[in-house]
Each structure stands twice: as C-alpha cells, then as structure tokens.
Design goal:
Blueprint: E1 3-7, E2 10-14, H1 20-28, H2 31-34, H3 46-63, E3 66-72, E4 75-86, E5 91-98, H4 107-122, E6 127-133, H5 137-145, E7 149-160, E8 163-173, E9 186-189, E10 192-196, H6 202-210, H7 213-217, H8 229-244, E11 250-255, E12 258-269, E13 274-281, H9 290-305, E14 310-316, H10 320-328, E15 332-343, E16 346-356, H11 357-361
Parallel strand pairs: 5-6, 13-14
Antiparallel strand pairs: 1-2, 2-3, 3-4, 4-5, 6-8, 7-8, 9-10, 10-11, 11-12, 12-13, 14-16, 15-16
Helix pairs in contact: 1-3, 3-8, 6-8
Length: 362
C-alpha cells in the first residue's frame, strides 16, 4: 500500500506475495535481455520469484533495505535494490534491472535516483556503491547520469555461468549530492499520511502516547506499562516480524510529519482470508476525520490489494468515539462479548463488528 513516488504515474512499491507471477512473467519475457548480466534469470520461476519476495520483505524488516518493484501506470516494469548494508560504516550497494519492453526510457535512472534519496535521507547512509560489468554500457550510463564516481575495476570478481567477469566499482557519497526527502508513504490528504512503523519511530511513539496518556488509558490496557522508547521498540519489532511474514502491517499515522497514532492488522488468517483491525489516535489529533481516512486506506489495501474476505474489530461498549469511526467505515455490529476485558478496576463488555469484502465494495 505504501509507495515511494518517483514521477507522475511512476513509483516504487514493496512486493506482495501475489506479485510473484507478475515478477516471473516480466523476467520470462525478457530472458535474452537480462541473462547477459544476471545469473538468476536462467532458474527463474514463480517459486523463485516468491522466494525472492520473501527474502526482500525479511531484509526490509531487518534494516530498511531490500528489493522494490518499479511500477509505471500500475504495470510492473523492473526492480531496484539496496543491499549489503553496513550500519557501522553507513554504506550499502544499489542494484537494478528493467524489462526489455521498458528499457531506454530513463525509468531506471529515475527509480535509482529516488532510491538513493531514500538511502541517504531516510537510512542516513554515507556511501552507496554501484557495480556493473565492464561490458555493460547501459548500466554505466545510469551511474554517470546519477553522478557516481568511478573508483576502479574489480578484476574477475564474479562468476557468470562459469565465466569470470570484471566489474567497474562506482560510488556516491552523501557529500556528493543533495538528497531529497524520500519515504514509503500512503497519502491521506491535508498533510496526513501512513508509514510503516520502523524502529527509528520508537521515540515518536513514546511522545505521541505521553501527549495523551489519560485520553488513551481509558480504553487501552497497555498504556501504563509503556513509558520508555525501548518499550515501543519491542512492539515495533513484532510489527516488522508480521510484515516480513506477510501476516499484517502496522502503520504510523502522521500529520504534518508528527506521529499522531497507529493503525494496523493483527495478523492474517490466509485460509479464511480474515484479519482483525485496530487503531488509536493521540488526543490532539482527534475530531479531524483522520482515523476515518486512515481506516479507509487500510481497508482498501486489505480488500482490494490482498483480496481478503472479512475484517473484524472490537471495542469497549463505552468507547463511543471508536464506535463512530467503525460505523463510518461500514462495519456491521455482530455480537457483544460480556466482561471480555479487565481494565483498571472493572470488566468491560466488547462490541464486536465485521465487514465483508462485498459490503466494502458497495
């Protein structure tokens, strides 16, 4: 759902498992074009594409790098990668390829440029390296256009189908460029957006909760026990694990670059195409329709992108603000679980709701 805009109708997106066939088809129709410089092409299959996507998700969850699909007018046209991250030395390597039908349009140069912005501005890298075969003029032109400096040639450093290949080594330093802000986001309008929660957001989460402890603790049992940034790091790590395992995403809700709340899915039952929904919003940001917009974006992702069948949610029967949001999003009341939660000094009933894909579409 979140994406990194490149240009009008051009963006980078995280791969989803259901993109495996699209990815394989793009490789399969470009085998002769790609195999000259890429080993993986010969053994490409839907299964290997799915494995590639799983490994990419795991890498992003670990350190913010990974493989990203390049989409032009909702068509997958190629992929760019950040890999071999060294946190100590603040460096990584960039890679890229594009389907034959889309080559020669400057798409990859634009995509890599935005990925460099992301690496320098968001991951705070100091050096990004680019390697290309000495006989690959198209890749060399990308490096030159983006301002990379040629450092030398690594002689016979890699093997391509049994043959030793030499590579040019190019580098770009943070001091060589003026990176623009670059984040994977889902705009919600009026300066609001969704971003996947990452470890560097732990302090932002603490500040959001601290600004609204009395407001939040009325219906959230975890508020009193989370008083330090490291407490929220554990929550974020669990959220990133679910992201890596395709088991639900957790997003920060940002308003004018300030973290306002959280919304996400508490796991996905892929057998029954079912998930559960949850959210909270700091008090200074209530009353603006912000949670309703965030909820619509996440529900659209669940139903339209992931093709889930049912989303459920529950809240204390005393939480009238949450009920209004849920009703605006189209959820239907289904049951009341009596004394479902002990909160502070007494039990609370839970109102349970459900929303089906066909109801969302209508």
């Amino acid at each position: 759902m979140v994406a990194l805009p490149i240009a009008p109708n051009l963006e980078l997106r995280h791969f989803e498992l259901h993109h495996a066939e699209l990815l394989f088809d793009l490789i399969d129709t470009s085998r002769a074009h790609l195999r000259r410089y890429l080993n993986f092409v010969d053994d490409a299959s839907v299964d290997s594409a799915e494995d590639f996507i799983r490994r990419s998700r795991a890498r992003y969850a670990k350190d913010g790098t990974g493989n990203f699909g390049v989409w032009a007018d909702d068509t997958l046209v190629g992929a760019v990668s950040l890999f071999d991250l060294s946190p100590m030395h603040r460096k990584a390597e960039v890679g890229y390829w594009i389907g034959q039908a889309f080559a020669g349009r400057g798409i990859i140069t634009k995509a890599v440029s935005r990925l460099l912005d992301y690496g320098f501005s968001e991951l705070k890298l100091n050096r990004i390296q680019l390697c290309c075969a000495t006989d690959n003029p198209a890749s060399r032109r990308v490096a030159e256009k983006l301002g990379f400096v040629l450092e030398g040639v690594a002689r016979e450093d890699r093997v391509l189908r049994g043959t030793r290949v030499s590579h040019q080594v190019w580098s770009l330093l943070a001091a060589d460029t003026q990176p623009q802000p670059a984040r994977f986001t889902k705009p919600l309008g009026d300066g609001a957006e969704l971003r996947l929660l990452e470890l560097r957001h732990a302090q932002n989460l603490l500040q959001a909760v601290d600004s609204s402890r009395e407001h939040l603790r009325a219906f959230l049992p975890w508020v009193d026990g989370n008083t330090k940034a490291e407490h929220f790091e554990g929550f974020i790590k669990g959220s990133l694990d679910r992201f890596a395992q395709f088991n639900g995403n957790t997003y920060g809700i940002w308003q004018d670059n300030q973290l306002a709340g959280v919304i996400g899915m508490h796991g996905i039952d892929w057998t029954h195409l079912d998930s559960e929904f949850g959210y909270w919003l700091a008090q200074p940001f209530t009353g603006r329709g912000l949670m309703t917009r965030a909820g619509r974006a996440v529900l659209s992702y669940c139903f339209d992108e992931l093709n889930l069948h049912r989303i459920s949610i529950a809240h204390s029967t005393e939480n009238t603000s949450s009920r209004k949001v849920i009703e605006r999003l189209g959820f239907k009341p289904e049951s009341v679980a009596r004394d479902a939660e002990w909160l502070h000094d007494r039990f609370h009933h839970w109102q349970k709701y459900g929303l089906l894909k066909r109801e969302w579409q209508t």
